[in-house]
Design brief:
Blueprint (H helix, E strand, L loop, with lengths): L1 H5 L5 E12 L11 E16 L3 E6 L7 E4 L12 H15 L7 E8 L9 H17 L5 H11 L10 H8 L5 E5 L4 E5 L5 E7 L11 H19 L10 H8 L3 H11 L7 H8 L3 H8 L12 H24 L4 H18 L6 H12 L4 E4 L7 E7 L3 H14 L8 H4 E4 L6 E4 L2
Parallel strand pairs: 3-5
Antiparallel strand pairs: 1-2, 1-12, 2-5, 3-4, 6-7, 8-10, 8-11, 9-10
This protein binds alpha-D-galactopyranose.
Alpha-D-galactopyranose binds next to helix 5.
Length: about 425
């Protein structure tokens, strides 16, 4: 296909994987550690550098139209999350990092098998893949950590204010191990998953593109506002506080104590923008322009108590999960399952990022043998991840298939994309021609 599109052959190939987040949802952008693993599914780009300053992109999937632009004038439209914009995020991130204005062009053919809008991070995989493509064309070097940080930042050009989990695991993943990803500074530590269990991904078949709605950014802003109100209440320099983790670090207290402080300080009724302004002593204009993102400026209510409770409790569950994996008691799988179930309940009730189909799918998975099951990724659709005892895997797959997919039109979705067991895969790679 590369040959018929561009009339030449690729010089090299780059792959970057998607991921499944095992536990630690919506806490990376609050500064807290998360526990994902890379999946085998990935983005793969065939590349030929060219002398002209033109970037030409094509996709093996006919749903994604060809795109071409001058390499020196990258415009990323935040209003529509078109596929090529994710490529441009990675491209621009590297270009800006090296302060380059005169970039060489390239021909790229993109292929991918991560189900889109499913919470498995197909978008970040494309940003990371494009970042590594650009770096390779330039003949420059960066560490995986630097690459992950650049790509996490440059994905914000699409308009969503994600954390760094997806890009970090795409670069730092290693086959056979999940990773605890910590931020500021970015670090990845191996977490050995129990051998007696399998992690199974099930797609609710409800598509959710986090850049197409404001759900995601509203949560980021609610966490930011909660952090500011907590900081103000504790007489900390709230103006410079952006993340819930900073409040904990500045107070030097435990996550359990942060939960109590949240209960004492914030109220469970939603906050109006006016009340927030009153608490912080700022004007509505200042709130809109200095704190909120462009697509959340007209939001009328913010739930601060619920979001902060989710974040602090979820951050604690991640640490417990890692500890149980390390200590590996006899009932490891059961304990990990319980944490995953608690995570789902918190995502559903406190963070409100689930949907009826995800809740139904989680129930079905638990009914047919999962020790724990939860939504994974941003939520509001997409996939669940379940921990299933290895000896129950085949009956689990058959029963969930029957109960969730066969009884509805959902069985139309190719099976491999809907329900599959997964193992920790490796990170992004460049394949050069021998
Ligand atoms: C998206 C974001 C991540 C993370 C998850 C939710 O995937 O890109 O940074 O916030 O949602 O855990």
């Amino acid at each position: 296909m590369f040959n018929s599109k561009f009339g030449s052959v690729p010089k090299f190939y780059v792959r970057a994987p998607g991921r499944v987040n095992i536990i630690g949802e919506h806490i990376d952008y609050c500064g807290y550690s998360v526990l994902p693993m890379a999946v085998e599914q990935d983005m793969l780009i065939a590349v030929e550098p060219v002398k002209t300053h033109v970037l030409q992109l094509a996709n093996t999937n006919p749903l994604y139209p060809d795109f071409s632009t001058s390499a020196n004038n990258i415009q990323i439209d935040k209003t529509k999350p078109l596929w090529h914009n994710y490529f441009l995020c990675g491209f621009k991130g590297i270009q800006e990092h090296f302060g380059l204005s005169d970039l060489t062009g390239m021909n790229c053919l993109v292929d991918g098998n991560i189900p889109p809008s499913s919470g498995l991070s197909s978008s970040s995989a494309l940003v990371c893949c494009a970042g590594l493509v650009t770096l390779t064309v330039l003949g420059m070097n960066l560490s995986k950590v630097e690459l992950a940080e650049i790509c996490a930042k440059s994905e914000h050009y699409i308009g969503t204010e994600g954390g760094g989990m997806d890009q970090s695991i795409s670069f730092l993943a290693e086959e056979g191990t999940a990773k605890l990803i910590e931020f500021s500074p970015l670090r990845a530590t191996d977490v050995k998953l129990p051998s007696g269990a399998v992690f199974v991904i099930a797609n609710s078949c409800v598509e959710m593109n986090k850049a197409a709605t404001s759900h995601f950014n509203i949560r980021v802003m609610e966490c930011r506002l909660a952090a500011k109100l907590l900081a103000k209440h504790k007489c900390l320099p709230w103006e410079e506080v952006l993340r819930l983790e900073e409040v904990q670090a500045k107070l030097g207290v435990s996550l359990q104590e942060m939960l109590l402080i949240t209960e004492d300080t914030l109220h469970s009724e939603p906050y109006s923008p006016k009340e927030i302004c009153r608490c912080l002593g700022i004007s509505l204009q200042e709130l809109k322009t200095q704190i909120l993102s462009p697509n959340t400026q007209d939001v009328l209510t913010f739930k601060l108590y619920q979001r902060a409770k989710h974040v602090y409790s979820e951050a604690a569950r991640v640490l417990q999960f890692k500890k149980i994996c390390e200590e590996a008691p006899d009932n490891t799988v059961q304990l990990l399952g319980e944490l995953m179930n608690q995570s789902h309940v918190s995502c559903r009730d406190m963070y409100e990022c689930s949907c009826p189909e995800l809740d139904q799918l989680v129930d079905i998975c638990r009914k047919f043998g999962a020790q724990g099951s939860r939504l994974t990724g941003a939520g509001w659709g997409g996939c669940t991840v379940s921990i299933v005892p290895a000896d129950k895997l085949s009956s689990f797959l058959a029963n969930v298939h029957e109960a969730y997919y066969q009884r509805s039109n959902r069985s139309l979705v190719p099976e491999k994309q809907s329900l599959f067991a997964t193992k920790p895969g490796g990170g992004a790679l460049v394949f050069l021609e021998a």
